[in-house]
Here is the input.
Amino acid sequence: MDTGRTEFDLGEVFRRYGKAYEYSHPMSLEQRKALHDLSRCRTSMLGGHIDRCPNCDYECPAYNSCGNRNCPKCQGIREHRWIKERLSEVLPVQYFHGVFTIAQEYHVFAKYSAEHIYGAIFAASSKVVLRQMKKQYGVVPGIIAVLHTWGQKLQIHPHVHMLITGGGLSCDRKKWVHCPPRYLLNVVNLQEAFKKQFAREIIKLQKNNKLKCNSDRRLSPTVEQVEVINNTACAKLWNVNIHKPFSGPKKVIEYIGRYTHCVAIRNSRIKDISGNDIISLDCKNYRKRDRHNIALHEIILMTPDQLIGSFMTHVLPKGFRKIRMYGIYGGSNRSEKIEICKSLFPEECDKEEVEEDKDNPPADMLCPVCRIGVMKGLSIDVKPERAPPDIYNVFSVEKGFIKAS
Here is the structure.
């Protein structure tokens, strides 16, 4: 969800420079769809309706959203819906925030075998947490895992954010076992277990011929090459952490909700699109911190091709699930397991209806003229305009890629 206000947005970058990029770079179907959708999002090309202020009768067109899951403008409604669904399932226990990051040696695989490598991160991280929770506490925890593939400078940086219950349901499903306050698992043991499990997942992919390390997708790395990469990566320290628990279940879901529907770059980070084809991007430098240990911000410069190309590397394959659930929250019988857990906390799990604060509407809904009235949609439709030739082109599908016809 993009909550920042900015003069520029990613759609403007795509409208200005997208045509030149797509004609000079190979792109997958999903990447080209993202390029076209984002360039038209909330513009007259998608049509819309008329909004009117009941206070001063000011009217303005409200254009439709593209709905693409890679669009920073279109995630707010999905995030709100997801949070509302999770609040009905949340349990009144401690929750911990885990982060599982793979070594840089595997990034080349992420570029050419994204679906399989990202799936391996999910598999390895969930297996080690479930295994260690069962070993240490004899329980099945609830896990919500979210994949992020980017760093602050849009480089490939695959990692999983994981929300883990502080304890879990006993194997006989008759009681809830709590973990100690402010402690879940030994991070050193978790890191070593994650390394070994991910290395096993990589070997499995190589055996099944699902691992690619260059643009020629017919070639796969040999067993010896994979073994060298695994040995080099496992000799390093990996960024695996379990952070302190949150203040309450509701805060937990709201916090993780910010991770579930964010995309590689928020519009608020684009500070300038200059006339000499240079884009200014705001980034956090985690190596430089102030006296409160907060990362400092800095401005980096990128060319349009660099920005678009970097963004496209984080467009996930079609149908790939970036949010996955395990343990109590996973499986076909998840509803049954959640109800069993709630029955163990009868008083704390009383359902509370979440009501919207109608007295304080979002700033985006206020009239831009009088700043008093709340803009309301009329039944007057705005027909979509035909996209100009430099934005919309006709393409034909050939061998998994779209080429200009």
